[in-house]
Write a structure and sequence with these properties.
Layout: E1 3-7, E2 10-13, E3 18-25, E4 33-39, E5 46-51, E6 57-59, E7 67-72, E8 77-82, E9 91-98, E10 107-108, E11 112-117
Parallel strand pairs: 2-11
Antiparallel strand pairs: 1-3, 3-8, 4-5, 4-9, 5-6, 7-8, 9-10, 9-11
Length: 118
């Protein structure tokens, strides 16, 4: 069965960096579009960006200067490099997998918490 397991979350001071990973299994990772989302309790889930099967990335305009998405198909792993972190980046971060980047029909990980302190 499909599994997406995020890791790398934790606590960091503002201005710091974190690299999140999402280990995928149970499907052909390389042909799926992958994405990162985040959610603050009480608010809607926010899209960070995606990377398709050709390695083409898209980002939310507000985050593209600081966040970088990459994938390693040989390791079936998705990454999110986050730099210059701000307290408002505090959220639970989720990875998702979908054919043709159709996020209404995606597989989701369980999330990893990121806390950025001022």
């Amino acid at each position: 069965h499909v599994q997406l397991v995020e890791s790398g979350g934790g606590s960091v001071q503002a201005g710091g960096s974190l690299r999140l990973s999402c280990a995928a299994s149970g499907y052909t990772f390389s042909i799926y579009c992958m994405a990162w989302f985040r959610q603050v309790p009480g608010l809607e889930r926010e899209g960070i960006g995606s990377i398709d099967s050709d390695g083409i990335t898209t980002y939310a305009d507000s985050l593209k200067a600081r966040f970088t998405i990459s994938r390693d198909n040989a390791k079936s792993t998705l990454y999110l490099q986050m730099d210059s972190l701000k307290p408002e980046d505090t959220a639970v971060y989720y990875c998702a997998a979908a054919r043709y980047c159709k996020w209404s029909d995606a597989y989701w990980g369980q999330g990893t918490q990121v806390i950025v302190s001022a």
